[in-house]
Amino acid sequence: MADPLPRAVTRLIDELARLPTIGPKTAQRLAFFLLRASSSQAQTLGRAVASLHDGIVTCGQCRNYADAEPCTICADGERNAALLCVVEDPLDLAAIENSGGFAGRYHVLHGAISPLEGIGPDDLTIDLLLERVARGAVGEVIVATNATIEGDATAMEIGQRLRGQPVRVTRLARGLATGGDIEYVDAATIAQALEGRREL
Amino acid sequence: MRVQTLDLTNFRNYRRLRLRLPAGRLVLIGGNGQGKTNLVDAIHILASGRSLRPGPEAAWVRFDAPASEGFARMRAELAGTEGPAEVEMIVARARPEAGEASGVRRRVRIGGAPRRLADLPGRLLAIGFAPADLGVWTGPPAGRRRWLDLAVAQLDRAYTAALETYEAVLTRRNALLRRLQGGVGRPSELGFWDEKLTEPALAITAARADYLARAQAPLRAGFQAMQGGARFDLDYCPAAAQPTAAALLAALRQRRDRDVQRGASGLGPHRDDLAPLIDGRPLAHVGSRGQLRMAALALKLGQYQLALEALGERAVLLLDDVAAELDAQRRRLLIDQLPPQAQTIVTAADASLLDDSALAAAPRFHVADGRIEPADA
């Protein structure tokens, strides 16, 4: 049976469908939205995609994606260089940054230790983290990996590799969510909240 | 405990069913593929989270259900010594077009409130007798662990969660072992997974040992009822008998090289087994085929008795086509041993097999093509 759609449309649908969280139906809808939109709108999107890789560098210090080297956070002399927050990926960094509660610097691992996905410690930027700490300006490493088995494995690896170094290594607290009702919290979270309780 | 009503939507071959179940015994009659087993299976899944049948959970959803109804719902209203209760499970086929991984999503509600899957086992207390169970002593250890896991989970609310944690960590440890086997990574990476493994491993081993210690007397009574005279013991053979986290960690480290070589974990409760003994000698050596089959049923009767003693609650008994697997004498023996006060659902393709037993007088329903009608209507 011949494809009822023009080849250019089919090609776009195929490319869109390769993106995460986008299935064939969504890809079709997006393709037709772009087809019906003005030509300039489609071109703007196309240029943004085409130039995505050109303007981006990886910051030599924190390994985050940035417009220039070093990135704005690493270049900001107002920030506390003694505090280093280690995150799994740039979106985690953005979440912590947007919270406004942290004024130190970051280190992006670009993943977490995950045997199921074949990711080991050597596939992350842990060696670069150790180098940064060895340079001596860092007083505390805050491990902000996800509260998953993979995040725990990564945190433990970092903790072990930093053992013996003159830095404090901490992990983000776990427990009740703000606005949460204890009645509906699962047992594992309650147990962790009890473990991590604090003096009033 | 009894199931008062059972509601099924799109479950296997049931489009929609609402069935009020009698308090005592009930016989479901119907040909193959009509839905007898599916009905008792729905109760078994609500009781344990697991099916009586092998196969993927996606098969729980009626195969010709339209895409807009790509889910199955099972719901039971219960009456127990602690009053009425309600359990519900919804199984939805994953929608790959919405970016969901393949397989299914399962949701559990207890008393109408969403709960975790691990919270389900033991709310509805039920014990299944399926033809495959008769081979439990001659088959591989996995079948014996399956019985043990279902039995322990009925009495120990934390057990299923420990099993889930253990399996999640074990899968990852095995994946890492395969990587190391292929020469990728460092063996020291195992340290984290070893440590994560010990806590649930110790909890599982302890819970199994505790259950079997308490079950000895009821199991012996169950065996005696089925087999007479001989003394029956059920020994627990834990693969990891280390009593402390430190000892287990040391043992894991000791066999690290072998694990890497095999690319799989060789130590832990996933390798446990049970050893049945008659008068101190291995049942497998001295028992006849018939004895082995009756000893398999004794396991279930012992489980029922222990649940009754520990919880004060009578489990619902689900006998799926077991009668056809036994000769007339053993069939009668089994039926005679069924506790008369327990709600009991028996399926049979050939009702005449039950005519000379205590089940002859039980109310009968016909099952045909996913519909159920009283036999005398």
What does this structure look like?
Chain A has 200 residues and is of the alpha/beta class. Among the domains of chain A are: 7-50, RecR Domain 1 (Helicase, Ruva Protein, domain 3, Orthogonal Bundle); 79-171, Dna Topoisomerase Vi A Subunit, Chain: A, domain 2, CATH 3.40.1360. Chain A is built from 8 helices and 6 strands. In chain A, the strands form 2 sheets. Chain A has a 4-stranded parallel sheet with strand order 4-3-5-6. A two-stranded antiparallel sheet of chain A has the order 1-2. In chain A, helix 1 packs across helix 2. The longest helix of chain A has 13 residues, at 24-36. The mean pLDDT of chain A is 91. With 377 residues, chain B is of the alpha/beta class. Chain B has a domain at 136-312: RecF/RecN/SMC, N-terminal domain (Glutathione S-transferase Yfyf (Class Pi), Chain A, domain 2, Up-down Bundle). In chain B, 38% of the residues lie in helices and 24% in strands. Chain B contains 9 helices and 15 strands. In chain B, the strands form 3 sheets. A 6-stranded antiparallel sheet of chain B has the order 2-1-4-5-6-7, covered by helices on one side. The longest helix of chain B is centred in the middle third of the chain and has 38 residues, at 190-227. The two termini of chain B are 28 Å apart. The model of chain B has no long low-confidence stretch (mean pLDDT 91).
Structural class of chain B: alpha/beta
Oligomer state equals: heterodimer
CATH C-level label of one domain in chain B: Mainly Alpha
**Overall mean confidence score, pLDDT of chain B:** 91
Overall pLDDT of chain A = 91
Estimate what percentage of residues of chain B fall within beta strands.
Answer: 15-25%
Q: Write out the strand line-up for the largest beta sheet of chain A, numbering strands in chain order.
A: 4-3-5-6
Features:
heterodimer; A: 200 residues; alpha/beta; Helicase, Ruva Protein, domain 3; Dna Topoisomerase Vi A Subunit, Chain: A, domain 2; two-stranded antiparallel ribbon; B: 377 residues; Glutathione S-transferase Yfyf (Class Pi), Chain A, domain 2; six-stranded mixed beta sheet; 9 helices
